[in-house]
Amino acid sequence: MESIMKLEKVNKTIGSHHVIKDLSFEIYPGEVFGFLGPNGAGKTTTIRMMVGLMSMNSGDIVIAGHSVHKQRNQAMKRIGAIVENPEMYPFMSGWKNLVHFARMGEDVSEERIKEVVKLVGLENRINDKVHKYSLGMRQRLGIAQALLHRPSVLILDEPTNGLDPSGMKEIRAYIQRLAKVENVAVIVSSHILSEMEMMCDRFGVIHNGELVDIQSVNDAIADADMEVTIEATPLAVAERILKEETDHVMTKNDCCQVVLEKERIPEITVRLVENNVNIYSIYTQRKTLEDQFLKVIGDGVIE
Amino acid sequence: MSSLIRNEWMKLFAQRSTWIMIVLFVCLITGYALFMTTDFAPSEEYGGDWKQQLQQENEEMRKNMEEAPATANFSGDQIRLNEYRIQNNIAPDNFSGWNFVQENRLFVSIISLFTIIIAAGSIANEFRWGSIKLLLIRPVSRTKILLSKFITVLLFALMMLVGLFLLSMGLGALMFGLGTWTEPHVFLQGGEVKEMTILSYSLMQYGFSSVNLLMMVTFAFMISAVFRNSALAIGTAIFLMMSGNSIVAFFADRAWAKYILFANTDLNQFVTGTPLIEGLTMPFSITMLSIYFLLFLVASWLVFTKRDIASA
User: Fold this and answer.
1) Which tens digits make up the pLDDT trace of A38-64?
2) Distance from A148 to chain B by nearest Cα, in Å?
3) ABC transporter domain spans which residues (chain A) (predicted)?
């Protein structure tokens, strides 16, 4: 599959600080790409370069075949974005804000604006001034603004910031639908990793301006060891047997916690049963994205 | 481009401060007109025998000149004007609506002030609101965005100037009577008597007053684009506007004084007065003004189009 956005050895120096180092990756149509990294890793700088707010020292970003700095307008036609907070004009109504940005694109009809308003569920408040909006409503208006011109690449920085759980779920479902039905490539960045886990198909982790890992969520799941919690009596026997099998055993309340590969669970269960241990429950939990993330970025020191 | 200007215009008038300025301005002029009618009685009224009156004035002035030669310059000019009127049968202006229109030229500096405030905010505020990030990720070049903002600022100034002129004419007609717009107006240019219709003379005066406005507004726009700080832009532009003449006076004896912006902003000096500094001519001043104007715009453009939008 041909990528819709391609970063080619992008470098950026701010002052004497080499913020982005030879960053290369590709985004494909129809995927939700999670862009992760600790604060100061260069995430926002990268996003700003993607949308042409910042220049780069070397390398290129190509969107649908158009270089961001050589064919800027062509590239920008294909992009919709919220960079950091969705900051609109507070003294105008949501509607006027959308009209404002619609005029800056091509062929955005009034029907399209109405359609987008309905999509993000702002019909009832669209004529209110933006300074009366809650953070969640601003977020929705921000998404509406990014979608007006039917972009092929949608960049959302912290898209669920300020939304209540039902709003988050709604936006998540909407992002998924955009990707799967309309074949839009969505780049999402967020600090809430569990949130990202639910939303994204693939992840890129950036640390100190370098890409440290790209993997799909499914790979992450397959790779990961399981954290297995076994509720059993007598606990001491269970613990002794488990210690023979693996190094990481912890007892807590009436349970033993071990870290195992998934394939070994049946075998270990059999051993416990053979040793007359009564098992009440076996509960597995795969390592979260958070654990993976922390493993990848190491101690999290920002250079 | 036109849709960009419509956008800027929409944002400008969606802000309450713009309306406050306009309302304030209308109140100010109307208040001034009311003050003039109640508090101002024209000292001299010329009637049907104005020719005799003027002759009498001239004789008095000639007598005074002999006694006090210091006033010779002013009186000499006045005598020449009066003689011209008598010869060409042009009655002197009693205070009419047209005088009111011309006096209200003073309010152009208020328009400058308001337009400076708007120019200072036009870029700096986008940064302050954070909306600059959404503005600059559209398929529209930064040059066009900058230009649309500048044109909108100029359109606002033009709207205010036309408004001032029309409102002054309206109030002038209502309170003092306007007479006809083809009424001739006589004035001295370098000691020579010139004649113009009152309408074109008034328009010319407004035009000259707008030169300073244009320069200071462009300056404020530049500061706003370069430093992203509207307070700084308003402060420096107003300071320069107020102190411009003092700056010229202070350096008047230097050889380079005529290259100072403010030595050139008053084009009226070539038409109805004497140049501030010897050697200044209209074409020279217009050249200098154009150079400054372009300089301000190029500086704004360079910074605005090249800047990384890092934190906003």
Assistant:
1) 777 888 889 999 998 998 999 999 999
2) 11
3) 5-233
d(CA A120, CA A123): 8
Rounded Cα distance between A107 and A121, Å, is 23
Which residues in chain A are closer than 8 Å to B137, comparing Cβ atoms?
A: 51-53, 76, 79, 81, 83
Instruction: Point out the residue among A54, A91, A104 whose CB comes nearest to the CB of B308.
Output: A54
Full set of structural domains in chain A with CATH: 5-221 (3.40.50.300), 225-286 (3.30.70.240)
Nearest CA in chain B to A78: B139
Pick from B7, B138, B303 the residue to mutate for testing the A interface (most A CBs within 10 Å). Answer: B138
**Interface probe, candidates A43, A53, A150, chain B, greatest B C-beta count within 10 A:** A53
The C-alpha atoms of residue A247 and residue A231 are separated, in whole angstroms, by 18
Chain B neighbours among A 113-152 (CB < 8 Å)? 145
A87: nearest CB among B16, B130, B137? B130
Neighbours of A175 (CB within 10 A): 21
| H or E element in which residue B56 lies | helix B50-67
- Cβ of B129 and A52 within 8 Å? no
CA distance B225 to chain A (A): 16
Alpha helices in B1-49 (DSSP H): 2-14, 16-39
Chain B residues touching residue A91 (CB < 8 angstroms): 14-16
Residues B228, B308: contact at Cβ < 8 Å?
Answer: no
Distance between CA B200 and CA B183 in Å, rounded? 10
Question: What ipTM is given for this predicted complex?
Answer: 0.81
B10 contacts A92? CB cut-off 8 A: yes
Give the pLDDT confidence of B252-272 residue by residue, as tens digits: 888 888 888 888 888 888 877
DSSP characters over B130-166: STHHHHTTSSS-HHHHHHHHHHHHHHHHHHHHHHHHH
Q: pTM to 2 decimals?
A: 0.84
How would you list the strands of the sheet with A32-36, edge to edge?
Answer: A79-82, A153-157, A185-189, A32-36, A202-207, A210-216
How far is Cα A36 from Cα A47, in angstroms, rounded to an integer?
12
State both tokens at B308: 């990384």
Give me A146's structure tokens: 């990014």
- C-alpha distances in Å from residue A110, one per residue of A100, A113, A121, A148: 12, 5, 17, 10
> H-helix or E-strand containing A76?
helix A72-77
Query: What 3-state class would DSSP assign to B177?
Result: coil
Q: Does A40 touch chain B (CB under 8 A)?
A: no
pLDDT class for B297, splitting at 50, 70, 90? very high
Question: What's the gap in Å between the CA of A146 and the closest CA on chain B?
Answer: 9
Cα A146 to Cα B134, B143, B297: the distances in Å are: 9, 22, 31
C-alpha span between B208 and B216 (Å, rounded) = 14
Nearest to B138 by CA among A227, A79, A99: A79
What confidence tens digit (pLDDT) does each residue in A155-191 have?
Answer: 998 777 777 888 888 888 888 888 888 889 999 987 7
**Given an 8 Å threshold on Cβ–Cβ distance, is B137 in contact with A145?**
no
Residues 6+ apart with CB under 8 A from A264: A245
Residues in chain A with CB shorter than 8 Å from the CB of B310 are 14, 48, 54
Question: Would the CB atoms of A53 and B133 count as touching at under 8 Å?
Answer: yes
Whether A51 has its CB under 8 Å from any CB of chain B: the answer is: yes
